[in-house]
Amino acid sequence: MSTAPELLAEARTALERYVDVAVDPSGALAFAHGEVPCAAQAIELAEGLVVLSVTCVIAWDLDRSAVLDAAVARAGANVQFGALGLLDDGDRADVTLRYAFPAAGLDTEALATLLLLVLSAASHARTEVLAAS
Fold it and tell me: How far apart, in whole angstroms, are the C-alpha atoms of residue 115 and residue 119?
């Protein structure tokens, strides 16, 4: 059984094969895939259930419009790992991809593969959202 700090250490090892990873004082991981900034955190939700959470900022400070809404919906339909979110203040919007999964017990190779699938989806979503904006 992995603890949250052990899972983050495994995620760091898996990610460092492909991207530069920084560790902030809280232990969270910060990295970028292409032009998409991301962060990963781990938490024990219940005894024995350690979850890795990845958040990627797909785009930010976009004009809020029906075109943007449609682009996010299209991009979200193509995301297999995670969910796109549209955060807005009425006039401007940010788009994020979030994915959380129980990763305890995955070996480094399997964890790297899963994380790269998430990061690839984030990069593709960014391309699609920005093309429509």
Answer: 6
Mean pLDDT in residue range 69-82 = 94
Residue ranges of E strands in the chain = 21-23, 29-33, 36-46, 49-63, 83-88, 92-102
Give the distance from CA 28 to its chain's centroid.
13
User: Can you give the residue range of the structural domain that contains 48?
Assistant: 4-132
CB 52 within 8 A of CB 7: yes
Cβ 96 vs Cβ 84: under 8 Å: yes
- Angle between the 108-132 and 66-78 helix axes, to the nearest 10 degrees? 150
Q: pTM for this one?
A: 0.92
Q: Residue 113's domain is classified under what CATH number?
A: 3.30.1460.10
Instruction: Please return the burial class of 12, using the count of CB atoms within 10 Å of its CB with bins 0-12, 13-18 and 19+.
Output: middle
